[in-house]
Amino acid sequence: MPNAKRLNTDVAHWIPVARHYEVDGGHIVVVAYNFFTATGTEVFYSDENAGPFSMQPIAKFPEGTTHDEALANMGYTVIDSLVDQPVVDTVPDPVAVEQSVLEMLPPEIAEMVTSTVGEVPQETPPA
Length: 127
Hints:
The chain has about 130 residues and is α+β, with helices and mostly antiparallel strands. About 20% of the residues lie in helices and about 25% in strands.
């Protein structure tokens, strides 16, 4: 069975959670994703820096398939000596997000927005 050695490559340009592997004859990236509109695990050919050759996956697996399971299904033995950082699944504080957005606006516009928070817009009757 061929090996898939997990690499400690910066894969920030991929969606979470992506992992980069060296395989016989090249490199691949395995992405396990779980969004509101899409879930699953996909495998892509890549270069030594985890740059994709194409955004067309070479293999797709259903929701819940782990990186290791996807590679095993493709015939690889996974060699993984890296320790994953815990994924923090937190919901941002809406007040802090609102404040940070207001800080990006020019002061006079931020003041206008702040002064209208909580107001209910009035509908204009059809003509």
